[in-house]
Amino acid sequence: MNYEVKNVWSVLLRLYHWALVLSIVALVVTGFYINNPWTNTTLEGSVSFPMAVMRYIHFVAGYLFTAAVLVRLFLFVFGNKQERIMDILPVTPRNLKSLATTIGYYSYLSEKHDNRLGHNTLAGIFYLITIIAALFQLVSGFYMLYPEAGFWQGMGGTLFGSQQEGRFLHHLLMWYFILFAFAHVYMVVWNDLKSPEGLVSSIFTGKKFKRKNA
Prior knowledge:
By secondary structure, the chain is mainly α. The protein has one domain (11-195): Transmembrane di-heme cytochromes, Chain C (Fumarate Reductase Cytochrome B subunit). The protein has seven helices and two strands. The chain has helices spanning 11-35, 50-78, 93-106, 121-145, 150-160, 163-194, 199-205; strands spanning 3-7, 207-211. A two-stranded antiparallel sheet has the order 1-2. α1 (11-35) runs antiparallel to α2 (50-78). The chain is elongated, with a radius of gyration of 20 Å.
């Protein structure tokens, strides 16, 4: 069967993806430490001061995470056809068909595969949910980082009620990103094995393989 190479993901989207990956890994590791330090507590009063180092890495990773999310929001509007939000929202006949086809394919009820270039609608919905969760995550993070700022006090108090409630939501959403990461890797590998479109390599090269007769 013949395939043709198609450009799917822009350089900006690929940079966003890997910036998000790196920042999430750093944020989760340092976040666990900040929540429950596993080093000897006597180190905190020494020159090494691991809590300060972990907090610094957490803050830097938080800014990288914020930049990545802002880039994705930009691409939702100004990206190529596969990167825009209307390509994934289940509000058009094409996207609703993609959603039904994908659910049938993932549940092994059908062998029919959604052969679109970009994300299928089901994946797109979860990516959109993840970006919304990311917005709450970064807002709660800045609320805790700058508690004295009037702007964050006003909006933070409205959204979370208190610093402790904001911290609880921040910690809770961390588990969403951990679970999402495992599910995302599993589904990407599963799709790459089931459908020879080059899904894994596409996030490095930006290119996918499409059947010429599809």
